[in-house]
């Protein structure tokens, strides 16, 4: 029986390892772990109560026999001279002590251990703990936080109930992780060089981190005066003549615009509900192979939603087409992303470049001409979208969407659109992307969404 039990545990742990799903890369999915832990605490309390009840029964038995034995041993012959006392002694030793033995040997932990074994399938593993530790280091570096700030939870707009007890532990984990990274330093440099990340990687990284902190943004008062807010109807589109949308210029060159109140809270919650069960570790296109792969510089999970899957998705797609004037039938499905602990996506281009394999060849719809980025949640601190080449920053605001063209009218890539998602310092960041492709746009004008001289 014991062999079968340990075999079961082994099988569950193996299943747990193979089914592991990078918990640290999605705050949305990590919330499930809180409820898993809550269920375990309830099960643990049930076990404690069962043990207490068992000990209480044993204690009552011991107290009763203690009084009896004290009285009996004062005059053993006189005590046993009473036939009932003699019978009860025989009965206790023959029957009741055996019952007590069974009670003492009863394992009250069976239910708790069974529940724990099952729930372990949903536990994080060493990779998650390492990923979360690296995230803390990333937040510390990007936002220039000291160790005490993180350990005490004194982050912008954040509260933390367990403060001082974290300091020594965090310092220990930080030193441990830095030691590992120092040992892997040479190997890491070789890998970066293999991916084309040479000496210019660190300068851009510094620029990226400064923008994430709101520093070094190239917006002069004169340029700011040329940015406007307006009511936008996309050249008197029938859907928006009476109720135009609110449009705000976020940047001039390249033109980056934000549309306000573009999706309702109810629609956003439905999209999250559809996406959450299907979230998987986000991937990137490997510039060497053109294939999709996971990367340390993209910490999030994503899911793809087709227009046919729910009317809300179809409605959002149609809204994007009506507002941008671009054909979305050749666009990629709506990608929904949820960022993890310190979630980020380092500087990258959305369009495919000439010096890399055609990442979109299989789609047969050309390059990504434009990006529609919908913010599906507010973020308390961090999480900005920054454009490293032009030093611009756009901050998340729930229910708004930002839009920009990745390609010039000639079809050449606009390298000014290189952008990144800053690490989330505090909060839970949800976004969705619609990447619109070239095919189908041949006879469409860039109404109101292109740069002016």
UniProtKB/TrEMBL annotation:
<dbReference type="GO" id="GO:0031418">
    <property type="term" value="F:L-ascorbic acid binding"/>
</dbReference>
<dbReference type="Pfam" id="PF13640">
    <property type="entry name" value="2OG-FeII_Oxy_3"/>
</dbReference>
<comment type="similarity">
    <text>Belongs to the P4HA family.</text>
</comment>
<comment type="function">
    <text>Catalyzes the post-translational formation of 4-hydroxyproline in -Xaa-Pro-Gly- sequences in collagens and other proteins.</text>
</comment>
<protein>
    <recommendedName>
        <fullName>procollagen-proline 4-dioxygenase</fullName>
        <ecNumber>1.14.11.2</ecNumber>
    </recommendedName>
</protein>
<keyword id="KW-0408">Iron</keyword>
<feature type="domain" description="Fe2OG dioxygenase">
    <location>
        <begin position="330"/>
        <end position="438"/>
    </location>
</feature>
<dbReference type="GO" id="GO:0005788">
    <property type="term" value="C:endoplasmic reticulum lumen"/>
</dbReference>
<dbReference type="InterPro" id="IPR011990">
    <property type="entry name" value="TPR-like_helical_dom_sf"/>
</dbReference>
<keyword id="KW-0256">Endoplasmic reticulum</keyword>
<keyword id="KW-0223">Dioxygenase</keyword>
<dbReference type="InterPro" id="IPR006620">
    <property type="entry name" value="Pro_4_hyd_alph"/>
</dbReference>
<dbReference type="Pfam" id="PF08336">
    <property type="entry name" value="P4Ha_N"/>
</dbReference>
<dbReference type="GO" id="GO:0004656">
    <property type="term" value="F:procollagen-proline 4-dioxygenase activity"/>
</dbReference>
<dbReference type="InterPro" id="IPR044862">
    <property type="entry name" value="Pro_4_hyd_alph_FE2OG_OXY"/>
</dbReference>
<feature type="signal peptide">
    <location>
        <begin position="1"/>
        <end position="19"/>
    </location>
</feature>
<feature type="region of interest" description="Disordered">
    <location>
        <begin position="181"/>
        <end position="201"/>
    </location>
</feature>
<dbReference type="GO" id="GO:0005506">
    <property type="term" value="F:iron ion binding"/>
</dbReference>
<dbReference type="InterPro" id="IPR013547">
    <property type="entry name" value="P4H_N"/>
</dbReference>
<dbReference type="InterPro" id="IPR045054">
    <property type="entry name" value="P4HA-like"/>
</dbReference>
<keyword id="KW-0479">Metal-binding</keyword>
<keyword id="KW-0325">Glycoprotein</keyword>
<keyword id="KW-0847">Vitamin C</keyword>
<keyword id="KW-0732">Signal</keyword>
<keyword id="KW-0560">Oxidoreductase</keyword>
<dbReference type="InterPro" id="IPR005123">
    <property type="entry name" value="Oxoglu/Fe-dep_dioxygenase_dom"/>
</dbReference>
<keyword id="KW-0802">TPR repeat</keyword>
């Amino acid at each position: 029986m014991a062999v079968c039990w340990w075999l079961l545990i082994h099988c569950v742990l193996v299943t747990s390892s193979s089914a592991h799903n990078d918990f640290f890369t999605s705050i949305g999915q990590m919330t499930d772990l809180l409820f898993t832990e809550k269920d375990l605490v309830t099960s643990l309390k049930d076990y404690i109560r069962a043990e207490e009840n068992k000990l209480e029964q044993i204690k009552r038995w011991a107290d009763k026999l203690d009084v009896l034995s004290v009285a009996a041993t004062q005059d053993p012959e006189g005590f046993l001279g009473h036939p009932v006392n003699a019978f009860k002694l025989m009965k206790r030793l023959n029957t009741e002590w055996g019952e007590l033995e069974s009670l003492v040997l009863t394992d009250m932990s069976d239910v708790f251990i069974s529940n724990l074994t099952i729930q372990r399938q949903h536990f994080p593993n060493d990779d998650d703990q390492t990923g979360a530790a690296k995230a803390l280091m990333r937040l510390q570096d990007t936002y220039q936080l000291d160790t005490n700030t993180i350990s005490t939870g004194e982050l912008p707009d954040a509260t933390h109930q367990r403060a001082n007890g974290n300091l020594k532990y965090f310092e220990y984990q930080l030193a441990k992780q830095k030691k590992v990274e120092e040992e892997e330093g040479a190997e890491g440099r070789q890998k970066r060089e293999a991916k084309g990340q040479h000496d210019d990687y660190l300068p851009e990284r510094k620029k990226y981190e400064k923008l994430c902190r709101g520093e070094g943004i190239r917006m002069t008062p004169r340029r700011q005066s040329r940015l406007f807010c307006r009511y936008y109807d996309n050249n008197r589109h029938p859907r928006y003549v009476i109720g135009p949308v609110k449009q705000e210029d976020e940047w001039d060159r390249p033109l980056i615009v934000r549309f306000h109140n573009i999706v309702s809270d109810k629609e956003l919650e439905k999209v999250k509900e559809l996406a959450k069960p299907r979230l998987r570790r986000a991937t990137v296109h490997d510039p060497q192979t053109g294939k999709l792969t996971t990367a340390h510089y993209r910490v999030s999970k994503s899911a793809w939603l087709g227009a046919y899957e729910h009317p809300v998705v179809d409605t959002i797609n149609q809204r994007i087409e009506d507002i941008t004037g671009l054909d979305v039938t050749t666009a990629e499905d709506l990608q929904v992303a949820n960022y993890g602990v310190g979630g980020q996506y380092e500087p990258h281009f959305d369009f495919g470049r000439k010096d890399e394999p055609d990442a979109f060849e299989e789609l047969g719809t050309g390059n990504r001409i434009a990006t529609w980025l919908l913010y599906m949640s507010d973020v308390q601190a961090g999480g900005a979208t920054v454009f490293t080449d032009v030093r611009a920053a756009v901050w998340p605001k729930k229910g708004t969407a930002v839009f920009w063209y990745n390609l010039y009218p000639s079809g050449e890539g606009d390298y000014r659109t290189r952008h990144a998602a800053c690490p989330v310092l505090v909060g839970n960041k949800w976004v969705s992307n619609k990447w619109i492709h070239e095919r189908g746009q041949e006879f469409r004008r860039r109404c109101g969404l292109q740069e002016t001289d």
